Amino acid sequence: MRKKVVIASAAIVVAICVGVGLMLRSPGDPSTTREGDAFGTADGSYEIGIPTAHVNDDVWYFAPAITNHSSKKLTLEDVRPGTLPDGISFVEARLFDKEAFAAGVPMSWDTSGGSAADDPSSKPSTDVRGYTLLPGQTLPDQKIVYLHIRVTSAKRPLMSDGVKFIYQQSGKRYSQTLNANLTIAPASSKR
Known about the structure:
It is built from 1 helix and 13 strands, in the order αβββββββββββββ. The chain is 12% helix and 41% strand. It has 191 residues and is mainly β. Strands 1, 2, 5, 9, 12 and 13 form a 6-stranded mixed β-sheet that branches. The chain has a 5-stranded antiparallel β-sheet with strand order 7-3-11-6-8, with no helix packed on it.
């Protein structure tokens, strides 16, 4: 009889722990990601086509401009392609000062078709995590976010659809994908 009471007591303790755990992981939990709208819907619409990238090439392209249209500050956690096909792997997103690009900021750069002077990997940069935007503040102002991907397939075309911004605001985690597309196009044929 004592053994049944101990087992029943243990089951009640487990049930209480699970219930408390679920309550702690409530909608206010920062690990829960919600659909965000801090950047509005008009920001970040573009298409970039790159016909020069080959297998194993690194490709860098800039993320769309964002403005914090909300009334509260937000802090970036991550910036990444919205969707990627097989044949493209995401490496990282980095934050650069625009002045690091003396000849102007290229919209994209790739190993096979880009000038060595414009190679983002040769420029100083920081992680996007922790970058704060105050209400009304725009990125880029003096900074730019580049997404770094690697081409892993000879298949063409390859298309990355959208750019996803993940951010924290008022203790909650949000994700918002903006319309910005990259296409690794077939090389143009010369006639």
